[in-house]
Every structure is written in C-alpha cells, then in structure tokens.
Amino acid sequence: MKNKLGNKELFHFCEQFSIILHSGISSAEGLHILYEDSTSEESRELFSSLLSHLEETGSLSEALSLSGLFPGSMISYVKLGEETGCLDEIMTTLSRHYEQEIEISENIKSAVAYPLVMLGMMAGVILILLVKVLPVFQQVFRQMGMEIGGISQGLLNVGASISRYSTFILAAAGILILCLLFAVLHPKGRQLLDKTVSALPRLREIPVAIDYGRLTQGIALGLRSGLGPETSLSLAGALISHPLVKQRLEKAAAILNQGIPLSQAMTDSGLFQGMEARLISVGFHAGSGDEVMAKLSERYRSDSLAMISRMVSIVEPAIVIILSLLVGFVLLSVMMPLLGILSEMIV
To answer: Could you tell me which residues come within 8 angstroms of residue 303 by beta carbon, excluding any fewer than 6 positions away?
Structure first.
C-alpha cells in the first residue's frame, strides 16, 4: 500500500477506532482486534504495520506517521487526543469529517458521471445514424435513380470520415475517458478540475463552498480539541485547496499573529463576511466558537450540495434537448427529400 488512504478508508478507521476507545479498549488492543477482523491482505498488512510501529514508539500518532498512509492533519489531531486524553472524542469527530467528505465526493461524482453517460449514449445514437443508417437511405435513393445532395450528402461524408478514422476516434475517446477518470478520482486531477470549474461563472461558487465547509469544520475540530487559534487555523488550512480560500486564510493568520483575537482576525481579513462574520463574532464572545463553526460547516456543506443539484438539474435536460435536436436534424435531412419523392409518386 503506497498511496495514502482515501476518505472511505479513513472514515472506517476512525469510526471503528472511536467505538473501540469508547469501549475502554486500549489502542494496541484495538489495532489487534482490527487486524484479526481484517479480510483483505492490504488491510492486514496495514494493521500489522501499525501494531509494529505502536509497540516501538508507544504512540498511535507516531505509528500513523511512520506508516506514511495517513494525512498530516489527522495525525496532529490524534497526537493532541493522546496528550489530552480525549482520543475517543477526536476519533468520533474525525469520522464525521470524513463521512461528510465522502458525501460531497459521491455527489460530485454523480453530478459528473450521469450527464457524461447520457452524453455518451446520445453521441452513440448519432454515430450509428451517420455511419449505419444514412448509407441505407443513400442506397434507397440510388435505387430510385436519384442522389442525395445538400446537407444529407454532407452528413454522409461525415459518417464516411468517421468510419475511415474509427481507430483514431476510439483512441481519442479512450484518452478522454481516462482524463475524466483522472480528474474525478485522483487528488491532483481533482485540483485541476477545481481550477477549471473556478473559471466558469455558474460553477465557481461550488469549490469555494466545499472548501469553506472543510475550513469551518477543521477550525471547529481544533477549538473543540483545545488547540490554540494559530494551530487550529494551520491544521484547518491543510484541508483546503482553493486558491481564493487559501489567500484569505493566510491573511487571517497574519492578522492573528499580531495578537488580534481569532474571531476578529477571520472577519477583518475578509475570510468571513456578512451574516457569517456576525455569527462568528457573537459566538466567540459567548464562548461557543466551536459550535458556531460547526453550524457554519453544516450550512456550507448543504449549500454546496444544493448548488451541485441545481447544476445537474440544468445540465441534464440541456444535454437531452441539444442531442435530441441533433438526432432529429439528421433524420429530417434524409426523410424530407424521401417524403417529397413519395408524395410525387402518389400524385
């Protein structure tokens, strides 16, 4: 196992470990239980390695770090949990965080995959019409002593070109599919996809809302765990990737280093504005800053999911309408001349 664990693996690990710790079982015994219950060779190898590192160092956070498979932010929270004696609560909160990451990721995949499947199916229908159906109509016209002309002939030429270069077209389609899978599944691909989406007026708000949800959740987790403001911002910054959010966060961190309170630093930097800024100010003055940040995280997550749903509701019918019009255009370009001939024969 060379790659870092994904959100699903991290969620299952944190959830199972939180249950074990809440039951009063030690970290070493918990890892041994997870090792015994593992069904795959990879998971057994992982827990065996963690057990070995834990026996050497006596620290779960050190064991996670030595494995090289866990994110640095998670390791920092686990280390804090060991030092403060609230590792069970930290694991519970981390499991909720990764569960929300899974939900957002699945919604994004669905939003991308379903329109692509529809696009592929309709494109296949058009290709069949151009390559297989139109030549049949051409033979019918020739048997009647006529030739197809105009738009119909142009479409026939397109179909002939597709048949002639079908190998190259299939190769290009395969490369396109691989690029799409890379953009959706690989972390670097998702970063590139975020940059592309950020350039589109209607979609640029989605990655910003997603990162704000991660940011507020990270700050809430840090404050709830007893971390200082600087450390909370630093660990939360490791969860985000959008350049705009990172820029605002760096500005907030610079203001915070000048001795300004965290709530004021987040508002003065422009990291939070409007209603969110007022909620943060009131919440921190009331001593419930972690609760306010957790509620804002839930709001941002809901907003991002709602924006994704709206995007899908617009894209899906648009694809169906456009491609249906294309199919109708291809058929009418041939059927209208044929209907004209049949009407003349009847007269």
So the answer is: 209
**Separation in Å, CA 319 to CA 117, 122, 123:** 11, 9, 10
CA–CA separation, 284 and 290 (whole Å): 8
Rounded to an integer, what distance in angstroms lies between the CA atom of residue 252 and that of residue 264? Answer: 9
Tell me the pLDDT tens digit for each residue of 88-116: 888 888 888 888 778 877 777 777 777 77
Is residue 15 a contact partner of residue 88, using CB atoms and an 8 Å limit?
no
* Closest-CA residue to 134 (of 118, 154, 114, 120): 154
For residue 149, give every residue at least 6 positions away whose Cβ sits within 8 Å of its Cβ, in sequence order, or none. Answer: none
Residues 6+ apart with CB under 8 A from 183: 189, 190, 192, 193
* C-alpha span between 182 and 190 (Å, rounded): 8
Q: Outline where 129-228 has alpha helix (H).
A: 134-143, 150-164, 166-185, 187-198, 205-224
Phi, psi of 68 (to 5 degrees): 75, 15
Residue 189 amino acid letter:
G
Q: What is the pLDDT of residues 2-44, one digit of tens each?
A: 567 888 888 888 888 889 888 888 888 888 888 888 878 888 8
Tell me the C-alpha distance between 162 and 168, whole Å.
9
In this structure, what token pair is assigned to residue 236? Answer: 């939360």
Please say whether the beta carbons of 54 and 27 come within 8 A. Answer: yes
Q: Which residue has the tokens 């997603």?
A: 210
pTM beyond 0.90, yes or no: no
The answer to whether the CB of 124 falls within 8 A of the CB of 116 is no
Could you tell me the CA-to-CA distances from 272 to 212, 257, 266, 325 in Å, in that order?
9, 18, 6, 45
